[in-house]
## 1
Amino acid sequence: MWRDAFEIREIDLFGRLGRLYTRRGVVETPTLTPVINPSKPVVEPQQIQRMGYQLLMTNSYIIYRSYGDLAKEVGVHGILGVDGPVFTDSGAYQLMIYGKVEVKPLEIVEYQVEIGSDIGVVLDIPTRRDTPYDQARLEVEETLRRVREALSLDLKGMLLVAPVQGGTHIPLVAYAARELAELPAGMYAVGGPTQLMQEYDFKELVRLVMTARLNLPWAAPLHLFGAGHPLMLPLAVAMGVDTFDSASYALYSRDERLMTPYGTLRLSEVEELPCSCPVCSKHSAKELKEMPRQERIRLIAEHNLYVLLEELRRIREAIREGRLWELLESRACAHPSMMEALREYVRYSRFIATKHPVTRFPVRGVFFASRLSRYRPEVVRHHERLKYRVERTRDIFLLFEETPQKPFTRAGLIKELMLQDTDIFRMSDAAVLSYPFSLIPLELDGVYPLSQYEASRNVFELAMDEIAADVLWYILNKGYKGVVLVYYTLPERFVRKLSESLAAEEVLFLGIGVENYQEALSNPKPLAARIRAALETLHDLTRDRQAAPAPA
Ligand SMILES: [Zn+2]
């Protein structure tokens, strides 16, 4: 069962660095398992293993059809000529493409055990994109029945993969995952997304994978079938996928397309190879174009495998460093459908924040590179904190626009003002208007990463409405009677809008625009006096209001 087979070592977003224990050795995850056609491999399995792929995949149904009982003698490892862990698929893909397979579901599981697969799959029924709900429901029930049946066999140490089906019928996916979660499978998988990926429908893929992930045990390993585009690997990992299989390296090579982390290039349209893998170091684009096709296809497939491997290493390192989000954002900028997918992904931010580490050592700063980074788990978690854990202690709210120096209470203008006149901070609850976090109450200044981030206001220009809405919500929700805003670069329209919105709710507002930040920093006395005067005015006015007789 999966509890004995998988170990999570580090987490970033929903991405996990883990170890999968198979009977032929340990596989470091996340990883990709290249799919090998047992009868005519494009690149030799031994060579793929030497490149650094720890887990290979092949199709037990093709072996069954071509070798029959003979394969039971030499085993799947003998056929491929390798000794490391091998993952076999069951023929479900053929079932989806041809509509039928000539083997019974239980028979192909037994066959996988007999040929010595280290990880085997139930012959599930992939939900096609156009399958209506009622039929998809019946197919899901049938897949569940097959998983239960297969788990009753003596698997002799083979990890059995239980696939979650349901396709784009999201409630069905959730149901299937919850049912499977009760069973002692060796691993789980999300099935049938090939069509989604071929159509670049990464957004739908996010809904499918996140639904499965959230309804399966968090500590169980999850495989994603048919996810081989380098562009989407960081996203798949960030959704909690631990292994993927892909024939894409070979499929693209047949099409003479070279993978890059950002997309694919047609060899015919390339003058220089933008890569330094062993293939591209040895050959020029011209040489590749001129060699015999068979040779060319093999070399392009090799290049593709190197690119995928490099991307996997980059992803694993990003998890170690806590920079998976940055990698996601950079991939999202490479293709519009990846951007769509990231926007869908951030809808799950509250769930992601529950697993994402609160802090890590050594402490690293957070880079806010785009407006989307306002959906990072750190920000979502901070907003929860603002909602439930911060209380109003004064009637007046003193808000400073974010200053370049951090921590705000220990460097820069806010610190200077504190030294100049501490009363200002006794007369009010003070906070910073932060571009990525919206609001940082000064008492939370030391909480990671509220003082350890880099952000520029230009990046957040388009998020100013969101920031204003957050600030307004906070002021009204906490019940402040008056607000003083000290600002240096905020646009006048932002200040005007905030003041109008507050006036509509009968909250008093005074804005203090600082013309020259540097000057205020070197001589904070006049600014301290202006702030104090503003606070005193608001105090008097709010007191008068309270004293005024209630309207008859
Ligand atoms: Zn290359």
## 2
Amino acid sequence: MNILSLSGSIPEQVCDTIRFFGHGGSQRISHYCQYAADYISRVLEDEGVDGVVFPRSCDSSRTIGSYLEGCGKFVHQFHVPARRDAAAARYLAGEIRRYKEAVEGHYGTGITDMEERTGLVNGRNRALGRLYARLPELCYGAYLDMLHGLLQRPLRGQRVPEDLPACACPEGPRVFVLGSTQAGTGLIRQIEEAGLHIVGDRLPESRRLFSVPEVSTKGDLYENIAESLLAGLPSPSQDAFAEILKEDRDELVKKQVQGVIYITQKYCEPYDYLFPAYERMLDGLSIPVLRVTETGGGAGNAALAIGTFADML
Ligand code: SF4
């Protein structure tokens, strides 16, 4: 099975999926986030993909299923609650079970290795957390490249390296990046080439991925996975902005961040809505922010803006 997944909220303990990071596909849906449009293109055009799983979270992801109707592949929408209490955990546990049964039904296979997979996810996340903690001394671009490659491989083949190349600009201004999942690492390379030193992030494929607590295999595994997913870093599509601001304020202060680069997709409402609140929080900390919007064809004249921001810092 080759299932393409869109988001970190899809539980990896159920089965392998290939995490989607970008594809310059033919779908150009106006007033639709390009990341989701590229995802739809990849599903429709890539014969190697035989299934898809995506969350019901933002407006774009909510309607992906309608564009994929009749594509002949396994199509599953995973519902994630917009609360973090015990009722939400029970609901999410039911969704995880429904996802597992849908995979089993479509592919005619029994899934019996969820406990083993849980141990593998726990171990991988621990290793990623250790690398992230060393980011000030490591090359962030190499770190994100490694992550993107890792998440497109089956869980059993995911090896987190012990080390990565050293940061080439350790004396540069310390910046933090946040936004929706990156299509690739081109923009990150531009930031580093401008002499900025990326010391932390809030990206779904990085800090948010391994922010979830370890999942216990004792008791009800579905509920344990659900509780862990709900205890990870909050998301602007599901959670209150105040929770996001609190978590990030602590990280920014701890890492002595001097500037923030806020990367968003055109028509990505969750991150557009979050921006004014985030900007206010940064104002209070006297940290300047540069907002960069990806449009599908790259980040336009981002290099110029990033260079100017670097000079200012
Ligand atoms: S969160 Fe933003 S980038 Fe991600 S699918 Fe939704 S609209 Fe697109």
## 3
Amino acid sequence: MMMKFLALIVLLLAVFNSASARKQNVHFDFCPTCVDFLNKDLGDLEKILSGGVLGSCSKVCSLLPAQSEQAICDLLCSIVGIDEFLKIFNELNIDPVYLCERLTVCPVKPGANGTVLDVAVQPSSGPHGTTFTIGVAYQVLSELGTAEIAFVVTDPTGTNGFGDAELLVSTAVGNYNAQFQFQATPSEGESFPEGVYQVQVLLCDGACGTKHGSTYNFLTTNFTITAGGSGNSGSITGGSGSGSGAAFY
Ligand SMILES: *[C@@H]1O[C@H](CO)[C@@H](O)[C@H](O)[C@H]1NC(C)=O
Ligand SMILES: *[C@@H]1O[C@H](CO)[C@@H](O)[C@H](O)[C@H]1NC(C)=O
């Protein structure tokens, strides 16, 4: 744990140095860390900032509960300065990916483009407790900036959605695969009724389903939950790599 923390600090310092030294030549290694951090801590930060805090980056960031979060916050804030930091977080319709782009640690690439080529679910039907695997093939047509490959599963009532996304950073032209897993086990929060579940897989510039993000394209498929099976907790597992929860709910 301590080693991990130290490694993170070293990475932060390395990124910070390159960011301040030569802004146009930053490698965006820190982008996933920034997005993960804000996926977790954006609510806390907004609460702190809405209190109208005045002062330095370290003063604002010291109000976050954990030391590791304070360090990431301090680094991000230091890159743009406290005034710009407060300004960015005061914008409307902010989401983690957009914020990390504005904080200059995630790339923005005009003209980026890509397309979802194929989507398939295995198995195509099964009882409660079945793990459904959503396989995706996609193509990057022009190098991506900060993007997401995301899925949304809508239950047969059409009102409940579940999703997750994988963050893509500076992904080069080429063909790629992604895999998501979805386990439908009834819980208090969601009964997972039997029936046909629609699956939508999207490739987006920025974060899917946000005001600042936009969808390159999407494909749909479905799977069926049949009678039988049992269990007591639902879970959704994102693809490998750095997931970033998108607001599909
Ligand atoms: C992406 O490429 C497709 C296929 O060439 C094209 O139809 C679409 O307009 C492009 N989208 C963007 C945002 O450039
Ligand atoms: C489910 O997907 C299959 C294959 O893509 C399609 O033929 C069918 O119409 C879909 N069913 C529903 C209810 O969406």
## 4
Amino acid sequence: MVSEIRDRRFSGGYHCPHCSSDRVVRYGNYRKRKRYLCRSCRKTFTDLTSTALHYIHDKEKFVHAAKLMLSGATLEKTTKKTGISIPLPLAGGTKCLIS
Ligand SMILES: [Zn+2]
């Protein structure tokens, strides 16, 4: 899942989510994610920085919920099946993130 997001997000080459610079280098790891350093603004980021998944702790549950919703399940049904509550703005973003 994360690799899919990384492939789509950085398909045109790595760029900084903070300043959009392409002067980006690998900078070790952060919480099992590849970490990068922007040489322009000196900020670091991971594959998920500035994505909806960055703020979600149980990513597997979120992916399960997203798949349910993409298959046509309502927000209420998805919440009951997965046991998680997806804020409405994120629910809309889920389709953008996965499709
Ligand atoms: Zn930057």
